Amino acid sequence: MFRDIPEHEALATVDAAWAAGVRYFDTAPFYGAGLSEIRLGDALQKYNRDDFVLSTKVGRVILDELDNSARVLGEKSGVFEHGLRNKLVNDYSADATLRSIEDSLKRLKTDRLDIVWIHDIAQEFYGDQWLQYFEQARTGAFNVLTRLKEEGVIKAWGLGVNRVEPIELTLGLEEANPDGFLLAGRYSLLDHDRALQRLMAEATTHNTHIVVVGGPYSSGILAGGAHFEYQKASSQIIAKVEHIKRIAQRHNVDIKAAALQFSLANPTLAAVIPGASRPERIAEDVAALKAVIPAAFWDELRDAGFISAAAPVPV
């Protein structure tokens, strides 16, 4: 995201993750119009397919036709401007889901997928039309992925979204039985109340055993970057982060370590996806996981109103 990543750097990042013990890799056709899947497929070729978990997403079909116009991608406009120029079509129908999976298998150079997430059926991408796309997915992608799981083609499926509401809606459906959810940006130091109140306990009640959090660094602002929610951070967000940093400094805590460990502290979660794009970032993430954070730091964050009283913290 946000920059033109050389191929050798992308491949080296996957190798660094593997060397650090990472065995879950997530991608999507949407990421660079297929470029992410192509590079991840190349990077993972050297490893035994039985030794890692692989997930991708459906909801966008990539055409051979090129599109050099400016793409309107909701809150994610401009994020993948350095990707391929192939045209993307938003389609959650049954036929499009099957085609998307077939195309992803080719780009990833693999014979199977472990998890398939239905991508971005939420407000931040489709605005007032999001429920129309959700309905298309409910009658299309939901049924296809359920059948593929029953047939043993995939091991699990669910939604991969940036909002809590589509997950709540899905959990309320009698006919849907997703295995889990990938929720990006909604369980972080900067934003976790709604997910904590409306999703975590509900997911457990429905025996949803795979809950993955993406974006623990909130698009980079909690790891020294300038972005929040895929765009340049507002002055209000910058001020909030600076306040958290001052508290962290008083306790000799790296805010990146605090952000990553906070997301992982919730027992409902199966994994967190930091989204490294450089090999050295992997080492930073591993160090962040191992950092010792005093309880007094979390207490001060609670007292200052930055984290919910009900949010689990590392112990």
Overview of this structure, please?
The model has no long low-confidence stretch (mean pLDDT 92). The chain starts with 6 loop residues before the first helix and ends in a 12-residue tail after the last helix. It folds into two domains: 1-165, TIM Barrel (Alpha-Beta Barrel); 185-306, Alpha-Beta Barrel (TIM Barrel), CATH 3.20.20. 41% of the residues lie in helices and 16% in strands. Strand 1 (24-26), helix 2 and strand 2 form a beta-alpha-beta unit. 42% of the residues are buried. It has twelve helices and eleven strands. By secondary structure, the chain is α/β, with parallel strands linked by helices. The longest helix is centred in the last third of the chain and has 16 residues, at 235-250. The strands form three sheets. The chain has a seven-stranded parallel β-sheet. A two-stranded antiparallel ribbon has the order 3-4. Helix 1 (7-19) runs parallel beside helix 11 (279-290), helix 3 (94-108) packs across helix 6 and helix 10 (255-264) packs across helix 11.
Q: What does the secondary structure layout of this molecule look like, with pairings?
A:
Elements: H1 7-19, E1 24-26, H2 35-44, E2 53-58, E3 60-66, E4 86-90, H3 94-108, E5 115-119, H4 123-126, H5 130-139, H6 141-150, E6 156-161, H7 165-171, E7 180-184, H8 193-205, E8 210-214, E9 227-228, E10 231-232, H9 235-250, H10 255-264, E11 271-273, H11 279-290, H12 295-303
Helix pairs in contact: 1-2, 1-11, 3-6, 10-11
